[in-house]
């Protein structure tokens, strides 16, 4: 089953979305890192959301992050760049 991505969701280049994943309205996938201190920062090339995941509305997943299969990332969650969320995790509303 192909992923379902709401038309208002933003999908940056180099984002991979697994089969059966649902991405809700106004989610942002692959948002580039914003430099804070001016120090160089290395991001992974791809952002990946695994199979059978749920990405809630108004959720942001940073560039280079990996969300493994079966995860639920609830509404209004912010995941910064280069984070790995292991298989089957639940990240609750507004975390």
Give a short synopsis of this structure:
With 95 residues, the chain is mainly β.
Question: What is the assigned CATH homologous superfamily?
Answer: Hexapeptide repeat proteins
Instruction: Kindly give the count of domains.
Output: 1
- Which topology does CATH recognise? UDP N-Acetylglucosamine Acyltransferase, domain 1
Which strand order does the major sheet show?
1-4-7-10-13
- Give the end-to-end Cα distance, rounded to a whole number of Å: 29 Å
Rg is 12 Å
- Report the count of strand segments: 13
Helix content: under 10%
The CATH architecture would be 3 Solenoid
- The percent range for strand residues is 25-35%
| SSE series | EEEEEEEEEEEEE
Mean pLDDT over the residues: 92
Describe it for me?
By secondary structure, the protein is mainly β. It has one domain: 3 Solenoid (UDP N-Acetylglucosamine Acyltransferase, domain 1), CATH 2.160.10. It is built from no helices and 13 strands. The protein has strands at residues 4-5, 10-11, 15-17, 22-23, 28-31, 47-49, 54-55, 60-62, 66-67, 72-73, 78-79, 84-85, 90-91. The strands form 3 sheets. Strands 1-4-7-10-13 form a 5-stranded parallel sheet, with no helix packed on it. Strands 2-5-8-11 form a 4-stranded parallel sheet, with no helix packed on it. It is globular, with a radius of gyration of 12 Å. The mean pLDDT is 92.
């Amino acid at each position: 089953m192909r992923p379902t991505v709401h038309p208002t969701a933003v999908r940056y280049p180099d984002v991979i979305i697994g089969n059966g994943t649902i991405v809700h309205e106004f989610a942002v996938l692959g948002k580039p890192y914003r430099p804070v201190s001016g120090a160089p920062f290395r991001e992974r090339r791809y952002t990946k959301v695994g199979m059978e995941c749920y990405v809630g509305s108004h959720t942001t997943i940073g560039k280079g992050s990996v969300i493994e299969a079966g995860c639920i990332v609830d509404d209004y969650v912010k995941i910064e760049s280069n984070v790995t969320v292991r298989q089957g995790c639940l990240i609750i509303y507004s975390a």
